[in-house]
Amino acid sequence: MPDNSLPNKPTINFAISALQNGKAPLAIQLCDAILADNPTSPDAYHIKALASKLLGQLNQAEKCFYQSLHYQPNQPAVMSNLANLLINLEKFDQASELFERSILSDKTNMDAWLNWSIMLCKTKQFELAISKLNQALVINSKDHRLFNVLGNAHQQLENYADAIDAYNYALRLHPDDVQALHNKGITFRLMNNPQQAIECYQYIQKLNQKYPELYFNLGCAFYDLNNKALAQENLKLAISFKADYVEAHEALNKLHWEDGDKTSFLESYQLALTQMPKASHLLFSYAAMLIMSKQDTKAQSVLESSISEIGRHHAFLHALAVLKNKQSKTPEVLSLLLEALQQQPKNTKYLIDIANYYICNVDYKLAMQFVEKAEQEAPLNQEIQAYKGICWRLMQDPKEKWLNNYDTFIHAQLLDVPQGYRDLSHFMYELKIALLKKHGSEQQPLDQSVVGGTQTVGRLLAEPEQVIQDFKQVLEQRILRYLEQLPEDSNHPYLKRNTKHFKFSGSWSVCLKDGGFHANHVHPEGWLSCCTYVDLPDNIQPDDPLKSGWVKFGETALHLGEREAIGKQICPVSGLCVIFPSFFWHGTNAFTSESSRLTIPCDIMPL
Predict the structure, then answer these.
(1) At the top level of its lineage, which domain of life is listed (predicted)?
(2) What CATH code would you report for 407-606?
(3) pLDDT < 50 regions, the chain
(4) Dihedral over Cα of 231, 234, 237, 239: its sign
């Protein structure tokens, strides 16, 4: 409704005042009145753009920003504000061009440097973000915000020492910078130094700051120290501040699961849902936890009632389809998946699961169509290559042998012995002692492929213990030799990413017990994977006709019966390191023994 109290002579100052007082509709009216008299006023278009953005009218805001620049091109602030809007619209290339133009016009515009760098981090261009931030810091080394983002970029590249240095610079400039303290704590935790992380979080508490993420990270750090009582206390505090804090619910209930606390398991969800009964993301997380803990009937009830009461949300439909697919491959499963996909046509997981349905129902060509659509959306997703391989094998397409070249791509060799150890047996014994101290849980992890065993948390190779760092050194040498001997093929989705430079993206230890095994799986976010065998039961032997405890490649998780095929199997021995592409289906055969099967798996990404 028009505001009849408009001043007789609207001015830009009136419009700015209205905007600053949160009266965006009035600001737009004032700007329109100014533009009626002066259609080429760049300031009026600028203020109207800002007011439109505030109201969520992003397309109108974009148009007004461009009109302002049309009538007066050299406006660094307008360029920077338009670039920020384009980030919201995911027009990242255009945003970069505008940030660059803004900075060329005014190199002292620190907001432009800052927001450009934040955008580069958001689009995972961390090296470029660091370059821009270093340029900005030459111009102004007193802006603590720049050091904070610099720390974040280094953290993502796992340059943890550089990240800590950047946060310390920010804190020298602004000692009470809560964001720098918080991110510094996260970095210490990534460095497997939870005690120093806790000190950062406790300093934030001394500043009388209370927010859910603070208690969540405190809880996680106490968990790292195996102080489960304080871990639970802080995770519960995080939920008390934010009842629908999904990550805190998941962490708390995984902790209950590991402790075998059936009474408390999922209790936090039930309590939170009494406060927020229609919180869709909370309901979905609750259903997912029920599925992971094999409570399928209850999960189905939660999903069906959510669909009935909240609506046919794609996440509920997809989860219900996955549950029903376990029971039988009925047409209802496909209709649920297609309905979910209609809401989210670029969702890679939905596309893959529809392909999965068609594979199980022997329609390989149609399955391949959905696999190819998924590849268009996420070309680096390794699960897509795994499904492509299944389709090609079942269609007897020779490209399957080219893709899944087990003999060339799977290498199994003993590790070298670092200095300070008598032989490989001595090295593996010392490594075993260090690893067993880290297997504190008695329960198998809730959300991993491990069945009948335990898995460590955090980044194992970041542990400072000498034997683990010695292992990392010889493992790096082993991987480098593997990468250097790989053939070249610019068309192969695996080989074309080999730069012969790499980083570890994940590392952990698994201890399988009597009857334990790894369910068949792939690593969707990986590129290269490896597993080192540290300690093994005596009855895992190369002459075993049952191949108990062996690692196998090629057999899927789709339960295809006679259509399954194992491409390669390897008998592990202590000190053996097996390297393979992350998209290869792999799992292990169960074994029977009073002794454990102790391994160190890792994921590796190319640089």
Answers:
(1) Bacteria
(2) 2.60.120.620
(3) 1-2, 4, 450
(4) negative
